[in-house]
């Protein structure tokens, strides 16, 4: 019976029923969707519950139902928005429901080995309750071709690899795509930049008809269109603005400074706790990363370095430990944006990509860094796209973040040769492009920091900077590579058998040889702090050295000649006066 209310004449009348087409508490598709509402296999739902995911993200809510219908999908969504699970869940569900024989029915192609390991790890967690019904194999490790062929001979259901490794295994006959039903190309806009064009063409030519294809990317670029033409014809295109929503939560600041002042600023930021929480410091190349690390070590500030020279197992462990909050400062080199050197040990030589505006960072893309509160662009990247991908490492999942960038004006470039970085020559031009491509509501603000307040620190900083020579940087670089190689090769089997011991493996050891460490630099006196206490008054202290007390009869030097007489030219007392 409908409720009644009084009209203007105080006469009760029935209220109008609410329109069924526009309920008051109408919810969007994303808000209504749950993982159980997708009809996924029960064992996968248990795996999802273990991940403690409350509800699907936007890309998952839109992509999973379409994927379960068998449609090809082209989705634009940033790292950390849940796109990996968006394609893994329907693929794993399909494998479990159509399980009649052991065949390789799904292949995931990614641009870097780090991303391959992340994808296979997540797939293993989601399939944790599937037992032997679902077998996953990653070709991203350091195993030899013989070992990888042996593992592929077991016909894993899902294979994760780079395009070069997948093409090599196909060429050797170890990997067959005859029974393939699903193909994923993750970070599709990056694979061409890493020199995988020929490999992708080879894979495309050997695909059977009717393969469901997922093309996931952070941008809809011209490179992505080339990949799309190779693999999909009429996909459902999902354009999600997760990246824009998150990027608007980033507070962006720019600091014009001299070349040597970069090191002074980074020291002050961490020593005075101007930056709280976890931070990623992006630098221009590998040498630069070790120079920054050594300078920070002079003041007792620990950090870790991530670059392509380190062994793969070390890089993966560094990222995992950083995400677990074991380390707070990570110094990342962006040198991988040119060579695609994450894949330098593939079976085929990697082609060198052109260094133009299309290249993007391998460190700032593809790797999921969690809970980063601040990104510091110690060296600005060579193009504006890399800048936005860098600052996208913070302000994830609705959280706010900060991006601080150092910029060298042209009049200050090459004014301090020991700290000059060639990439800083065009900082002003790069900054103009960054400002030009800012989204609506975004802007770069000047960080109004009074450099005069750092004047008391300059003498300490200059001392530390002089100690970090080119030889010190080279030796530190060699030292860490040796240390990490020892850990990754000699101890890899031990850590496989004793995984709990891996927690005690550190990557932030001091690399101070042969840089001179001065213990007093680790402590900051109160009187150096801006607005700090003055030194305690201990009374008058003379600048003269205290005079030694002269004792009569001591300190006298007497030299006698052959005749027994004293030689006045060779005899002096302690005060320097001759004595006869």
From TrEMBL:
One short Pfam name that applies is: Helicase_C
* Compositional bias per record (Basic and acidic residues), positions renumbered to this chain: 1-12, 343-360
Domain Helicase C-terminal, by residue range, is 249-455
What is the annotated localization of this protein?
Nucleus
Supply the Gene3D superfamilies for this chain: P-loop containing nucleotide triphosphate hydrolases (3.40.50.300)
Main enzyme class: hydrolase
A GO CC term?
Answer: nucleus
Q: Which UniProt keywords apply?
A: ATP-binding, Helicase, Hydrolase, Nucleotide-binding, Nucleus, Ribosome biogenesis, RNA-binding
Q: Which family does it belong to?
A: Belongs to the DEAD box helicase family. DDX56/DBP9 subfamily.
Q: What is this protein called?
A: RNA helicase
């Amino acid at each position: 019976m409908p409720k009644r209310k009084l009209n203007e004449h105080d006469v009760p009348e029935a209220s109008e029923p609410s329109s069924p087409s526009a309920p008051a508490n109408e919810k969007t598709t994303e808000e209504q969707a749950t993982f159980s509402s997708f009809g996924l296999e029960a064992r996968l739902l248990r795996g999802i519950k273990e991940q403690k995911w409350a509800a699907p993200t936007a890309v998952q809510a839109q992509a999973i139902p379409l994927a379960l219908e068998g449609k090809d999908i082209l989705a634009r969504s940033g790292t950390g928005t849940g796109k990996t699970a968006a394609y893994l869940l329907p693929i794993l569900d399909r494998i479990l429901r159509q399980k009649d024989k052991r065949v390789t029915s799904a292949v995931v192609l990614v641009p870097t080995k780090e991303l391959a390991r992340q994808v296979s790890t997540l797939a293993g967690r989601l399939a944790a309750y599937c037992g032997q019904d679902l077998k996953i194999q990653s070709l991203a490790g350091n195993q030899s071709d013989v070992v990888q062929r042996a593992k592929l001979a077991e016909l894993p259901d899902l294979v994760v690899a780079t395009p070069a490794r997948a093409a090599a295994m196909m060429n050797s006959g170890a990997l067959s795509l005859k029974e393939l039903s699903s193909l994923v190309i993750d970070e599709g806009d990056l694979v061409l930049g890493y020199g995988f064009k020929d490999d992708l063409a080879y894979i495309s030519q050997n695909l059977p008809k009717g393969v469901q294809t997922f093309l996931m990317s952070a941008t809809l670029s011209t490179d992505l269109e080339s990949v799309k033409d190779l693999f999909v014809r009429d996909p459902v295109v999902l354009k999600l603005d997760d990246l824009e929503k998150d990027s608007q939560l980033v507070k962006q600041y720019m600091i014009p400074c001299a070349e040597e002042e970069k090191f002074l600023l980074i020291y002050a930021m961490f020593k005075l706790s101007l930056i709280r929480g976890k931070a990623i410091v992006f630098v221009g190349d590998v040498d630069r990363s070790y120079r920054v690390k050594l300078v920070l070590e002079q003041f007792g500030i620990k950090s870790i370095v991530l670059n392509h020279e380190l062994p793969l197992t070390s890089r993966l462990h560094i990222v995992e430990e950083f995400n677990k909050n074991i380390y707070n400062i990570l110094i990342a080199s962006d040198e991988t944006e040119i060579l695609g050197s994450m894949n330098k040990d593939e079976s085929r030589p990697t082609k060198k990509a052109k260094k133009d505006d299309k290249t993007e960072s391998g460190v700032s893309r593809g790797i999921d860094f969690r809970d980063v509160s601040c990104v510091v662009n110690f060296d600005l990247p060579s193009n504006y796209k890399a800048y936005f991908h860098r600052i996208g490492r913070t302000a994830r999942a609705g959280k706010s973040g900060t991006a601080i960038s150092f910029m060298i004006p042209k009049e200050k470039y090459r004014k301090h040769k020991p700290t000059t970085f060639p990439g800083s020559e065009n900082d002003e031009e790069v900054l103009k492009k960054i400002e030009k491509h800012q989204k609506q509501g975004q802007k770069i603000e000047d960080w109004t920091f009074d450099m005069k307040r750092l004047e008391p620190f300059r003498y300490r900083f200059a001392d530390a900077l002089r100690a970090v020579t080119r030889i010190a940087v080279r030796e530190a670089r060699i030292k860490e590579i040796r240390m990490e190689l020892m850990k990754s090769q000699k101890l890899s089997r031990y850590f496989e058998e004793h995984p709990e011991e891996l927690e005690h493996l550190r990557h932030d050891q001091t690399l101070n040889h042969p840089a001179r460490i001065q213990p007093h630099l680790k402590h900051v006196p109160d009187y150096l702090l801006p607005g700090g206490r003055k030194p305690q008054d201990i009374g008058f202290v003379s600048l003269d050295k205290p005079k030694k007390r002269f004792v009569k009869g001591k300190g006298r030097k007497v030299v006698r000649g052959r005749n027994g007489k004293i030689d006045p030219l060779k005899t002096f007392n302690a005060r320097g006066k001759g004595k006869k």
